[in-house]
Each structure stands twice: as C-alpha cells, then as structure tokens.
Write the structure tokens for this entry.
Amino acid sequence: MIVATHRCADHGHAEFVLQVDPSAVPEQHIEQIIQTLEGMVAHGSVFAPGQTLQVGWMVTQVQRHDKMRLTLFEPDMRSLPVKYVPGVTETLRQMMLQLFVIDSFGVPRNDMDIPSIRQSVVVCDKYQDASGILLMRGKAQDQSDSGWFIGCLDKDHDHQNTQNLAKIPLYDAFLNRNAIQGWMAFPSGTFIALQGEQPPQVVRDGKELIILPDSFLDRLLQRPETA
C-alpha cells in the first residue's frame, strides 16, 4: 500500500510517499505518521535525502521517491550492519507494540522514554541464550546511552564483574534477543523480568505493576496456543 502526505507543498516542501503494509498496521497509525510528517514540515522542519528521522525507537532514512517527492526507508531489523529497505511497516509495528505494552500496565504515555536503536545498552554475556532475561533501566549517562541493562536471571552470574558485561547498540541487542522490542519505552526506575511462558514481572520505582484486564498483554497471555 502506498500513502502520501498532501500538505507539505503548502510550505514549499516536497511531499512524502510511504510504503506500508495495511495488514500489519491499522489505518489510524498510518494516518498518524502522515500527520506527523505534515506537522513537522508545517513547524519548519526541512528534510533531504540522506537525513535520518527517528520514529519510535527506529531510525528511518529519508530517500528520494522520484524527482519531486521523498520517501522513508527503515532498518530491516535482521541484518548487521544495518540494511535499509523501503517502507515504514516495521517502524510503525514496533511503535505500536511499545505503546500497547506500556498501556497494558497503566503507565501514562507521557511517561514513556523512547530510546533509539542506535543508543547503547549494557548486556551480560549470557543474555543471548539465557532462558529468562532481566531488563533494568537507570538514568542515561549521556545522549548515546539508553540507560538500559539486559542480563540473565542466573543468580550465580556476577553482573557487577565488568568482565561479564559489554556495551552494544540496542539494535544489536534486538537482533540477539528480539523479545526486548516491546519493553524499551519504559522509563528509568523500571525492572522487568521475562522468563519463558510466565507472565512478565514489572516493577517501577519499587512498586509492582499489574497487567490490566483486557489489555493487549492480558489478551495475548490468554490466547490459546495454536498448532
């Protein structure tokens, strides 16, 4: 499906033409990115081929669609180094997932702190293959730091020993453990334990958060297994 902006030209700016899969992204979220681009241009933003634009935690790339119009490419979320492909389907899908997960715990969307896939995360050397993982977010040290730590749930694994730790981009962490994708918008002071089929455990500022009835995660956890 191809969608386009229609109000950028009113400000002397090229319009955007975007490729998106409507079976993966509801119309309201497709319309939202159109309105966002039109609003940014209306407020003075100027886009040119080669620039980047963060949408959710994804970093999209502005490219030329044709002589008169622009488009957006997104990371394919599979390749390392990053490979950009036409469209915004995965970008919008990931943004929706983060919104739905944080909504599931009643955390106000204004409290969301969305990082960038380019920012760094500290990981333990067992997180990739561990049966369960712990996500902890503190205050970021600088603009390149997401504030996140991802570790295993092995109580005997020393996460204070720097020899067991590494700092990598969030994009790399996603490739190694894509279960993190819905959780990265939680603010500092959040602890999250993800272990197999067990319900996620979330603690924010010392208070355990409960999954709200009939929320996205509540429905997901109750979904019957399919063959």
